[in-house]
Amino acid sequence: MSVFDIFLQQLVNGLVLGSFYALVALGYTMIYGVVKLLNFAHGDVYMVGGFVGFLVLSVVAPMVGPGWTGVAVSMVVAMIAVGFLGVVIQRVAYQPMLNAPRLSILITALAVSLVLQNGVLTLTHGQYQPMGADLGFGGVNLGLLFISYNQMILVGTAAALMIALELFVSRTQYGRAMRAISIDKDMCRLMGINVTAVIAVTFFIGSALAAAAGTMAGAYYGSVWYFMGFLIGIKAFTAAVIGGIGSIPGAMLGGLILGLLESFGTQIPGIGSEWKDVFSFAVLILVLVLKPTGLLGKSEQERM
């Protein structure tokens, strides 16, 4: 296999991995952009989405099959269910803390993460749960490069969700309200915008995107686990910071950069896959030193 073929294969692998990171990173950056909250429970929302997708697939597989049709139905149901879970979390855990010190709401987010993680641990006894999806192994051979149909569908679905989100934020009334609230929440209240409802919509969308990523990851990798949200939560947060926390295009870009970096980093001679996390966080440090606002982020000034 030539160097060029290896480059193309790792490019495909990096795009798949980056798609997962980007979808989860979007939730981080949307919530931070609107309520200035670092929602460290978001990785566990991704995990819950994977388990909801697993449960729905086990129910619908006898009717529609365990292929991509069943996975698509599972993903849609998981997005709706986990979207409402995100709204419940926001109303119960975060809404009463919005005017509290930043440290208090950060501790609350960590508490929500532990509740979700240990709740699923108790229900599953810490065991991996096989997803049961049968997606096949077909694909396209381009010389020595192999691109599976699963990879094409995953990247295409992630791209469609990200484009839909960008259109929603830029062209709808709720999207314009989100952008306005991110600038001046108090002024939006004075202008008659229902800030509470817009924040709820933000949590719904962010949680739904995490659920889509969790369901697709479970189908792609074959299983779900109660701890699956921990590392991808950290990686997605890293992607959001690299791209510029609060910037939706930045979260997309950061996720793809992180996925490609990990994919290509494992191909450096003498360095194995165990070093991929080192590359990721080294780039995070480098970006924060050279451009603290992230690649597409903008500096903010505190209002007096």
The gross shape turns out to be globular
Strand ordering within the main sheet: 1-4
Counted by DSSP, the helix tally is 11
Helix and strand content put the structural class at mainly alpha
**How is the biggest beta sheet arranged?**
2 strands, antiparallel
What's the overall average pLDDT, rounded?
A: 90
Short description:
The chain is mainly alpha-helical and 304 residues long.
Index terms:
4% strand, single chain, 304 residues, mainly alpha, 11 helices, two-stranded antiparallel sheet
Can you walk through the features of this model?
The protein is mainly α. It has one domain (3-127, 141-290): Orthogonal Bundle (ABC transporter involved in vitamin B12 uptake, BtuC). 73% of the residues lie in helices and 4% in strands. It is built from 11 helices and 4 strands, in the order H-H-H-H-E-E-E-H-H-H-H-E-H-H-H. The chain has a two-stranded antiparallel sheet with strand order 1-4. Strand 2 and strand 3 (145-148) form a beta hairpin. It is globular, with a radius of gyration of 19 Å. The model has no long low-confidence stretch (mean pLDDT 90).
